[in-house]
Amino acid sequence: EYVNINELFNYILDRFDMIIKKEEDPKKKKYTIERYFTKKDLWVEIDTDKFTQVIDNIMNNAIKYSPDGGVITTRLLETHNHVILSISDQGLGIPRKDLGRIFDRFFRVDKARSRKQGGTGLGLAISKEVVNMLGGQIWVDSVEGKGSTFYISLPYVPYEEEEWDDEETEK
Ligand code: ATP
Ligand code: MG
After folding, report:
1. Is the CB of 127 under 6 A from ligand 1?
2. Order of strands, edge to edge, in the sheet holding 31-37?
3. Would the CB of 119 count as within 6 Å of ligand 1?
4. Taking the model in full, what pTM does it have?
5. Which residues form the Histidine kinase domain (predicted)?
6. Which ligand 1 atom lies nearest to the CA of residue 125?
7. Ligand 2 centroid to 115 CA: how many Å?
8. pLDDT tens digits for 55-108?
9. Relative to the alpha carbon of 70, which ligand is closest?
10. Cα separation values, 80 from 62, 90, 124, 143, Å
11. Were both Cys, which of 87, 90, 139, 170 would link to 70 (CB 3.0–4.6 Å)?
């Protein structure tokens, strides 16, 4: 099915905004979600539920592994044949030596650090499987102690305006 990815990504992030606003306790960590989206509607052939699951995983990680809160920056842009989404946090970051394993099943950075947070270490492995199934790629860029950015690219065929050749149809 063709999905308007601007609308869907906004809808998913709206839910996270609502969750965050519910936590009115001033001692709780504070987050802001920023969105930098292309204005153009991008129609992408994806499964809405599967895409939602991937973004939920990455957003939940961004919150879970940012103990001091901060800004979560999201972007959506198009290249000539892909849409690219990114989600950046200002959290713990991922050590360079672990970057290659982050999408492996059950892999978690520093067992002690992760145990407190809870989780199985499957979120990103499943996300990668889903993104690949949609024909896309997922990758990460991270600096320990500064934060992480997760990128997703999905195949995209730009919508070309049809050129109606009146002369031919009027024949
Ligand atoms: P689950 O998602 O199954 O509940 P999980 O969050 O531990 O458990 P993944 O989402 O697969 O599993 O992430 C794997 C590991 O990668 C995490 O345990 C964490 O160490 C690290 N990680 C993932 N996202 C981030 C992030 N945004 N910042 C810092 N570390 C991260
Ligand atoms: Mg996770």
Report:
1. no
2. 31-37, 70-78, 82-88, 147-155, 137-143
3. yes
4. 0.91
5. 1-158
6. 11
7. 12
8. 999 999 999 999 888 999 999 999 999 999 999 999 999 999 999 999 999 899
9. 1
10. 29, 30, 27, 29
11. 90
